[in-house]
Amino acid sequence: MTSDLREEGARRDSLLPRGARHMQATPEASPLEIELFTDPACPFAFSAEPIRQRLRWHYGAGLKWTVRMIVLTREPGEAEKLAGGAPGLQRRYGMPIDPRPYPRPASSEPACLAFVAARRHAPQRAQALLRRLRVRVMQRGLLDDPALIDAAARDAGLDPSRLRAWCAEPETLVALEADAAAARSPSPAARALGHKLGGPARERRYTAPSYIIGGFALPGLNPVETYEAAIANLAPDLPRRPPPESVLDVLEWSDEPLASAELALIVGLEPDQVRADLRGVARFEPAGADGYWSL
Length: 295
What we know:
Layout: H1 2-15, E1 32-38, H2 43-47, H3 49-59, E2 63-69, H4 78-82, H5 87-93, H6 109-121, H7 123-137, H8 146-155, H9 160-167, H10 170-183, H11 188-191, E3 197-198, E4 205-206, E5 210-213, E6 216-218, H12 224-234, H13 247-253, E7 258-259, H14 260-267, H15 271-278, E8 283-287, E9 290-294
Parallel strand pairs: 1-2
Antiparallel strand pairs: 1-5, 3-4, 5-6, 7-9, 8-9
C-alpha cells in the first residue's frame, strides 16, 4: 500500500505541479459567488471545514468566495457558552477539537478584526490566517490573546506588526462592522428557517457556518450534498472535478495541512482508512483527538 501510494503521488506530481492549487474555471463558466458567514471561535464552523474543503476540491476557481465575520461573542453569554468546550462536536464530526473547557471566556472580536484586516490588505493570505486562528483556538487557545493572533499571522505568512497596523485602520473597523451588520440581517428565505438562525429574538443572525450561494441562502450547518445540489441548480455548467484517486492527491493539492475528517470526506473513505493509508507516508501533527496531515 505504501509503495503504491508513493508511486501514485509521483504520477500526480507530473500532472499537478505543486503550486497549481486550484482547478481553473473554463472560459465559458463564470465563477459562482459564495458568501460565507463564520467566526473563528465557532466549533460548528470548524466542524464544517470538511465541507468547505470538498467544495474547493470539486469546484476550485469556479467558486468565488467572500468570507464574512459574525463576531459571535458580541452577544451576552456567547463567550461563556463557547468557553464550555465542544466534546460532543468532536465525537460527532471528528475534527481536531480539544474537548476540555477553555481557561476563561474570550472575545472573538480581535481575531475577527485581524481576518478582516488581512482580507483588505492581503486577500491571498486571509483564508490561511483564518485557518490558523481556528486551529489554535480549537486547542483551547484564546482569540483575544495578542500572542495567539501574532503566531497565527506568522503561520499564515503575514508580518504580525503589519497586521496589527492594518487592524488599527478606521477602514478595517468599518469593514468589520459591515460584516457584523450583514450577519444580523438574514434574508427573508433564511428567516423562514428560523430554527437555523441564532441571536436574540430582537436581532436574529446567521449561525456559523451559513452559506449564501448565488443569492440562495443556506443558513447553519448542512450536509455537503445540500451545497452541491444548490451549486448544480444555480450553475449546471460549472465544471466539477472528479473525486481524487488517492489521499495523496488531496495532500499534494492542498495548500494547508488537513485533518483526517477532511480527507475522508473529500476522498470518500472512513477516517480510519485515511490514517492507515497515510501512516508512514505523510507527516502527522497530533491535535485534540486526531490531528493534521501534510506532505
